[in-house]
Design goal:
Layout lengths: L29 H24 L2 H23 L3 H34 L1
Helix pairs in contact: 1-2
């Protein structure tokens, strides 16, 4: 069968353009595609809830409740409670204070040495 010249590929490939298999290019940024999809789902959920609740603020409060519940569940699964997080923060604060005191003492010693 003969094809018109315009139906053939410019690089000399055989057969008409519509008969050739198309190569799919791998996406350059799958993480960005995932984030865009996640944001689109989040936007659609916000839209549906705001229509259902007749208020964007009420839809936001509902989603905030879901997020808080999920976060609390994730902390329980990880074995961390707010008390453990506060204890860890206190330990980190005390360590930072000790480090600051040591740096201050070292700076004072260096200052005294430079004056001499």
């Amino acid at each position: 069968m003969r094809y018109l010249q315009t139906a053939r590929a410019a690089d000399g490939a055989e057969g008409p353009i519509w008969a050739r298999r198309k190569k799919r290019k791998a996406s350059a940024a799958p993480l960005i595609n995932f984030l865009v999809t996640l944001l689109a789902v989040f936007g659609a959920l916000t839209l549906v809830l705001s229509i259902k609740e007749r208020s964007i603020a009420e839809a936001g409060r509902m989603m905030d409740g879901w997020i808080a519940t999920g976060w609390a569940g994730a902390q329980r699964l990880a074995g961390r409670t707010p008390e453990a997080a506060e204890a860890a923060a206190d330990k980190a604060g005390k360590a930072a204070e000790k480090t600051g005191d040591a740096l201050e003492a070292g700076a004072a010693t260096a200052r005294d040495e430079l004056k001499s």
